[in-house]
Amino acid sequence: MQDALFPEEELPPAPRTVTAVGAERKTAAAVRPAPVDEAVKTLAQALPDQVYLGTSTWTYPGWAGRVWDRSYSDKQLSKQGLQAYAAHPLLRAVCIDRSFYRPLTASQYERYALQVPPGFRFVVKAPSLVADAQLRDEHGRGTGSNSAFLNAELAGQEFVTPVLEGLGAKAGALVFQLSPLSAAQLGDIDTVLHKLRQMLLNLPPLRPRAPDAVIAVEVRDAALLCPAFVDVLREAGATYCLGLHPKLPQPEEQLWLLRQLWPGPFVCRWNLNRLHGPYGYEDAQRRYGEYEQIVDPDPDTRALIARVARATARAGQKVYVTINNKAEGCAPLSVRALAQELLNESAPDSQGSASDARRAD
């Protein structure tokens, strides 16, 4: 389980008075960012302010030389790596995945917020407590129906309220990733959508505490990608999280949902390269090793994300894109390639109208 990487106290204790020798040891143990070349700095400065790119978590020793100055243990990175991660000019966002496995407290979110600059934004996954329709064993197999699925009170209490209290203005996208539904639920989509509607309409308001924040819904069942689903999102002021995962249709086949929700923010989580199939996370992990380089480039997906992100930013809307190592092999390099794609393609003038942006999809 991913949560095992994150002990209950994921950050070091508050600083205390130490001797000179102790201070030297403390400094030596700190995670330091890798030097950033001028080309990356220039690329980051050219990106629109509305665009927040990042990765899915930050605990990978294989990013040494790209994000960290040297190799650190995953345990040390989970405790101390976020500040160094946020020092990279292209990494202005990160997805907190651990919140899916266990709800986090406001104080835990606050510790994250204190480590990043004001212009940084978090994408946060809702806990499976409310986002998974099934109870699951340690191997992920469904063992029964989850009575708390899409419960508005629990979603507010265990997710939205702690995020707002802890992250405040640094909250970006709050993502309800709906895990695969059971066969019975897939046969009664109307009931699922009714529950989703009731939950979304009864969540605590995000503003004014988090003015840039948006509620987004990601799915793993293509059956949910229907006009009624869009109606629910629109009514609740939520958006669709473009989940790039082999369980779903090709990305181009999902863009109609974003057209129906236009204008609005763009939330995208690039999860897994399609070549590995819907259950290919372990295969991707074996193939990509320490996630040191791009192994399976996917320029078509990258171009599509860039096109939608560019159009969204030009319409004055926020863009939150986080990339998993299993998308191409090395998430920080995928972020850099996506940033270059955003700037390199020809597009309308930066003051283009909303209709120009709409045509870009």
Explain how this protein is built.
- The chain has 15 helices and 10 strands.
- It is an alpha/beta fold.
- The strands form 2 sheets. The protein has an 8-stranded parallel β-barrel, surrounded by 4 helices.
- Helix 10 (255-260) links the parallel strand 8 (239-244) and strand 9.
- Helix 2 crosses helix 14, helix 4 runs parallel beside helix 6 and helix 8 packs parallel to helix 9 (227-236).
- The protein is globular.
Per DSSP, what share of the residues sits in E-state strands of 2 or more residues?
5-15%
The CATH topology turns out to be: TIM Barrel
Shape: globular
Q: Output the structural class.
A: alpha/beta
Along the chain, the helix and strand elements come as HHEHEHEHEEHEHHEHEHEHHEHHH
Biggest sheet architecture: 8 strands, parallel, barrel
Contiguous low-pLDDT stretches (5 residues minimum) are: 1-28, 347-361
Contiguous helical run count: 15
Number of strands: 10
Task: Give the proportion of residues in helices.
Answer: 25-40%
Number of domains: 1
Pfam family, one: DUF72
InterPro entries: DUF72, UPF0759_sf
Protein name: DUF72 domain-containing protein
Question: What's this, in brief?
Answer:
Helices cover 39% and strands 14% of the residues. It has 361 residues and is α/β, with parallel strands linked by helices. The chain has a single domain (37-359), classed as Alpha-Beta Barrel (TIM Barrel).
Please give a handful of descriptors for the protein shown.
DUF72 domain-containing protein, single chain, 361 residues, DUF72, UPF0759_sf, TIM Barrel
Helix and strand arrangement:
Layout: H1 20-29, H2 38-46, E1 51-56, H3 74-86, E2 93-96, H4 106-113, E3 121-125, H5 128-131, E4 134-136, E5 142-145, H6 152-167, E6 171-178, H7 183-186, H8 189-201, E7 214-219, H9 227-236, E8 239-244, H10 255-260, E9 266-270, H11 281-288, H12 299-314, E10 319-323, H13 325-328, H14 331-344, H15 354-359
Parallel strand pairs: 1-2, 1-10, 2-3, 3-6, 6-7, 7-8, 8-9, 9-10
Antiparallel strand pairs: 4-5
